[in-house]
């Protein structure tokens, strides 16, 4: 048996170190376990990270495919690459915005950097997204607004020091099991407390000391109610506010009454009092997609940051801590040239633009003037112009984007290149499919949610007709823009990226492969070969210095607005979507080769009864329990899908819960976006639930012969 290979789990953004052993013969990973020497997890590992690395479900892509006469057929890399280059070059011939590029938080830092370099420096398109807009853009925007820089100030070290742990719009017991173990253990201490804010009684809420269940879509109203109570009770940390912040008076002037905001959120004012009291102790506020994926996502994230600022919950053991969704979402944020140039260099700064153009040896006028829209706006540009071709890498927009039926139609109209390890829903409508390496097969680095960069190493050789993302991207880039990639080895690409971050807020110039080999992982900012980032914005003298023009943190003053899509007589129920315990994003590693055409729909027994459905005799015992037959339909203004209803008292009356991992869930979700971050409102829309009729059985879209095994990764 081969020696264990130290690497990093790419399931979620905790960034656990793994030891992987390749198979004795052939290709693949034989076994996986936690790495006790890795500084992020110290040997802990979740079962899903292990099983999905060693034995993922889904249909592997092993050869390039091209579409001929309406069907995908195997071909050679030479033929596939010729088709890709010809299609992208033709689409960009008259307008660089003729090509859209979609990336993913499943790529290594090196591949994400190279894809952004290709999109921005090789093609010059503004229609590019690194996929973080689907999950983290609202948190990113709020961090910039408050601190002048992206990423949470906290680290994992602060979990042990905090006493109150407020988890808002997230379910880390399911989404980040290793991190949640630390949170739960600390909260169980005599001075510890866990509070969960979520409309649904999730697995995380089930072990909390307190569960607050606001009405869906009212998180901003609740957060501002708590802020108002903190101010009323004179519980503001006046010394911190005076020393380190600005805009507090404007915030206070904008606050609603506690009673009115609590009523909007559907909670008793006593609940607001309890939340305000809890913030008197050293507090970490964690949040996730339940906050970010909303038309008010940025404002809600900002209000949670405001709570930390107003109560002085800044510094070790305290602060705002967004929970990153995809494994390398943080890495794509600092290196991929989506919302900023590498290292968080401002996108619209002419000096920074010239610096990037010189480093890449491209004309400065080739670089786009703005970072462009998110994925929703990018796909809309296929129908409205100017996008004619799309290059999608390690992402599955046909399943992962809102109003997925429209997304499928628009992508079908474009020249579509899909690069993935598995045959996804998006691959099924592609013109060219490129088989890419996955976990255990690639070399590079990744960055976890607390800013730790660590190595990703292959434990097995690549199959003959499979290439790494970096190899494919640089090969295509060199053919489209000769000289763009003078080097394409992972270590050399990382060195190029790291050098570009020197002197920036996200400085990685002191990180090298050699240093990572010795240390296991290093947090940025790391401006030299020995320093490493800790709690951000604290100076050596104990003061505060933020990346804002004044050096002070900025309060927000956003006012609560209306729901993106209120319920009415035609659509009287509210839909929410979330993770299952055994699922990951759109399910490439968990759904298996055959996907049931109907997702599980969890709803309160009374909700099912009101819809004329049999509420059944039992309740769901956990997220992801085995569902019954598809006896109902769920309809929104975007479409109608079959569902398998399950009675679950953990879901409040009037709400329907669907898993994000199922390929049909997003056929009914809403494509409205946050006006500040462009992040879609994936968590709340109006729907109706009804018994499935024979006519609907006949009309409903069922998988084609090619579709049952089609799975994806977000």
From TrEMBL:
Residues 606-649, 691-714 are annotated as: Disordered. Keywords: 4Fe-4S, Iron, Iron-sulfur, Metal-binding. Gene3D superfamilies: 2.40.40.20, 3.40.50.740, ADC-like domains, Dimethylsulfoxide Reductase, domain 2. SMART domains: Molybdop_Fe4S4 (SM00926). Residues 2-59 form the 4Fe-4S Mo/W bis-MGD-type domain. It comes from the Archaea. The keyword Metal-binding applies. This is Molybdopterin-dependent oxidoreductase. It comes from Halobaculum saliterrae.
